[in-house]
Amino acid sequence: MLGLTAAEIAKLAFNGVIQAGAGALSVVSAKKLWQKIRSKFQGNRIAIEALNDAESQRSPEILEEKVVPLLEEAMGKEPQFAQEIQMIAVQINHEIEANTADEIQMNAKAYNQSTVKQVGKIQADNVSF
User: Fold this and answer.
1) pTM of this prediction?
2) CA–CA separation, 48 vs 69, rounded Å?
């Protein structure tokens, strides 16, 4: 097991679905994860209704209250399914981390000696170039 909880996995997948159209690689992977979860619950009316409600209402509360317990149960019963969705979730986390690192690096290159010391929430007392 890779150590990601059902709640973490559900949140990654859900965030990708509600950010649909953003085009980021992590969003594409998150949609794939959401679809994998949806496929798992095919034929389970209660689970599909929970997924539909969370998605249509864009509700993290419904996700947490209704979807996560069902996902925890499915992951507990089927270790192969759990491992498969955890691997997708880990891939998403890596993509997010890579995108964040790229953004930070790009932003850092845009600053020079005339740049103010505070950028967003990052603050420096001594800046030397």
Assistant:
1) 0.69
2) 13
